[in-house]
């Protein structure tokens, strides 16, 4: 007997996480519990300036734990930065990693961890389940409400020589503990709030329509859509409002649990390819592509997109099929525009002659596998052209 689609075999992986105001101050206690003798703190300059790294290192000091801080991490973390971090980690004799920041320091910390135990170049782990040995204990403290790198089985690393963004997917990349403290998002500037929030929205949408979704990931994905629709613009307008900030952090957590287990789709595959070439912020790349990918996918899983529209507050009963489709696509486009992401890929430096190369990379990305409608190379090229 063929099982109902909703009950196909699915696993669900999540790190232990502590959600709530003040959770970052538990970093020292968790590092001690992992048996740390010296902690390698991975962060970036913006997070140091905002004061969050200091709060984390203070909590390590309270536990009498020595540490060193590595902050040479680009907005799209690079393979050479990972390898440089590994060298420092080894020289300093560290045995636990604490990552403080957005997706970039966290992904870099994941790379440092697995390279330190596997003794191979980080780019050799590209793809699904390519990491034989787990890294040292990893504690993550996210400071944006969007990437969910602190929960996910993903790490995205840019290979500088080939200008390629590689997706690494493995259970070995799930952190051991995530301390999710909404207070850390209070210092995010408006633009970062917008693009990280839209990244979380894209995670929720792509995980929900993914052909690897499950009833469990669906719950998280749809609730994330609800939370983001009703809190993102408010968090941008009133950055000091803790309710909006906390709701966005919760949305990011839920979207992260969904996509880490259901994976993503063509928007992320195409955004990864774009990010490797133009260094456009990841959330912005997604936002410029999402509506075109949704338009392409819609007829493959219309009930799923209708549920997303309803989670966004639309009353789809008053429309016929085509009207409903239009309303859902419009609602997503409006949300993105209201967040201040406008314009085209060309305005970000993408040229028409780049499209064949971008498309060849995107079609090979692991996120393409779970897109609900199969895409040919020509389909990918057409979508890039529409977004140009
Ligand atoms: Fe993303």
UniProtKB/TrEMBL annotation:
Domain named Fe-containing alcohol dehydrogenase-like C-terminal: which ranges?
A: 193-387
Q: What are the residue boundaries of the Alcohol dehydrogenase iron-type/glycerol dehydrogenase GldA domain, all occurrences included?
A: 16-182
SUPFAM superfamilies in the cross-refs: Dehydroquinate synthase-like
Q: Name the keywords, alphabetized.
A: NAD, Oxidoreductase
Q: Check the record and name the PROSITE patterns matching this protein.
A: ADH_IRON_1 (PS00913)
Citing just one GO molecular function, the answer is: metal ion binding
Show the InterPro entries listed in the entry. ADH_Fe/GldA, ADH_Fe_C, ADH_Fe_CS, Alcohol_dehydrogenase_Fe
Membership in a protein family = Belongs to the iron-containing alcohol dehydrogenase family.
Give the protein name, as stated in the record.
Answer: Iron-containing alcohol dehydrogenase
Organism annotation: Methanocella arvoryzae (strain DSM 22066 / NBRC 105507 / MRE50)
């Amino acid at each position: 007997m063929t099982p109902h689609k909703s009950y196909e075999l699915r696993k669900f992986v999540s790190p232990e996480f502590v959600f709530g105001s003040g959770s970052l101050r538990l970093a020292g206690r968790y590092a001690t519990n992992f048996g740390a003798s010296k902690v390698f703190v991975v962060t970036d300059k913006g997070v140091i300036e905002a004061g969050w790294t200091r709060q984390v290192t203070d909590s390590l000091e309270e536990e009498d734990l020595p540490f060193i801080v590595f902050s040479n991490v680009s907005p799209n973390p690079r393979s050479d930065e990972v390898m440089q971090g590994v060298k420092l980690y080894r020289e300093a004799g560290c045995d636990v990693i604490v990552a403080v920041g957005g997706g970039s320091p966290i992904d870099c910390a994941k790379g440092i961890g697995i390279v330190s135990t596997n003794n191979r170049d980080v780019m050799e782990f590209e793809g699904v389940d390519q990491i034989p040995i787990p890294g040292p204990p990893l504690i993550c403290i996210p400071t944006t409400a969007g990437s969910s790198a602190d929960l996910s089985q993903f790490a995205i690393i840019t290979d500088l020589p080939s200008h390629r963004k590689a997706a690494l997917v493995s259970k070995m990349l799930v952190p051991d503990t995530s301390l999710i403290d909404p207070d850390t998002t209070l210092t995010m500037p408006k633009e970062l709030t917008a693009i990280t929030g839209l990244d979380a929205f894209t995670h929720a949408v792509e995980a929900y329509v993914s052909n690897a979704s499950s009833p469990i990931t669906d719950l998280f994905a749809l609730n994330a859509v609800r939370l983001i629709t009703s809190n993102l613009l408010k968090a941008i307008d009133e950055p000091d409002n803790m309710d909006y900030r906390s709701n966005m952090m919760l949305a990011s957590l839920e979207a992260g649990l969904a996509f880490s287990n259901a994976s993503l789709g063509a928007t992320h595959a195409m955004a990864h390819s774009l990010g490797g070439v133009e260094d456009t912020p990841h959330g912005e790349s997604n936002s410029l592509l999402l509506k075109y990918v949704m338009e392409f996918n819609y007829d493959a899983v219309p009930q799923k997109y209708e549920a997303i529209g309803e989670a966004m507050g639309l009353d789809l009963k008053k429309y016929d099929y085509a009207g409903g489709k239009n309303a859902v696509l419009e609602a997503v486009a409006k949300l993105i525009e209201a967040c201040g992401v406008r314009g085209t890929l060309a305005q970000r430096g993408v040229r028409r002659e780049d499209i064949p190369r971008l498309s060849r990379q995107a079609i090979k990305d692991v996120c393409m596998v779970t897109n609900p409608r199969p895409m040919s190379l020509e389909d990918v090229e057409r979508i890039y052209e529409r977004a140009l």
